[in-house]
Write a structure and sequence with these properties.
The protein has helices at 4-12, 16-35, 41-57, 68-82, 101-110, 114-121, 124-134, 140-146, 151-181. By secondary structure, it is mostly helical. It folds into 2 domains: 4-82, RNA polymerase sigma factor, region 2, helix turn helix motif (Rna Polymerase Sigma Factor, Chain: A, Orthogonal Bundle); 101-181, Winged helix-like DNA-binding domain superfamily/Winged helix DNA-binding domain (Arc Repressor Mutant, subunit A, Orthogonal Bundle), CATH 1.10.10.10.
């Protein structure tokens, strides 16, 4: 199996198969990441397409000193940031009278999902830093590079993000326990 750097070099030499391998390797991971940052699946898919087009167009500018995934995620973040923001409806339900049971279940499960909670309580940059670090398993240095921030910023943001999520998840767990105990 070829490394990302070898695939980049082969792509630069004109191998379409090598670039197709890059696309296959990163398409699903980028989709998961971009789905959390876009208003719809279609927007995320558009951003992926734009990311790979830009990556192919500017492949010559990739510096092998850095990981390829860091470079690619940076392009993806720029592409999703350039999309117009759309209204995302709140998942909260004001009243359960006549509400769709499926919607009620979805809202209840939202409180249990750490990434949905993170999306709700963290800034976009903090959320991206957390996702890149803990889902994509990038080092702190790579997270900083992908987000075009300093390593110090990445460390502080990750620490604050973990603390905020710990507080938020503990608070929602305590609230759930209180509501169950009072029936």
């Amino acid at each position: 199996m070829l490394t990302d750097e070898q695939l980049v070099e082969a792509s630069l030499q004109g191998s379409a198969a090598a670039f197709n391998e890059i696309v296959e390797r990163y398409q699903e991971r980028l989709l998961r990441f971009l789905l959390t940052r876009s208003a719809s699946r279609a927007d995320a898919e558009d951003a992926i397409q734009d990311t790979f087009i830009s990556a192919h167009r500017y492949l010559y500018s990739f510096n092998p000193r850095w990981r390829f995934s860091t470079w690619l995620y940076r392009i993806a973040l720029r592409n999703i940031a350039s999309q117009p923001r759309r209204y995302l409806p709140d998942a909260e339900i004001e009243s359960t009278d006549g509400a769709d049971p499926l919607q009620i279940c979805l809202v209840a499960s939202d409180h249990e999902n750490v990434w949905i909670t993170a999306k709700r309580v963290l800034s976009d940059d903090a959320y991206s830093a957390m996702w890149l670090r803990y889902v994509e398993d990038m080092s702190v240095k790579e997270v900083a590079r992908a987000l075009n921030k300093s390593v110090s910023w990445a460390k502080v943001t990750l620490l604050r993000g973990r603390r905020r999520l710990k507080f938020e998840l503990a608070d929602s767990t305590n609230a759930a326990a209180r509501s169950e105990s009072y029936g």
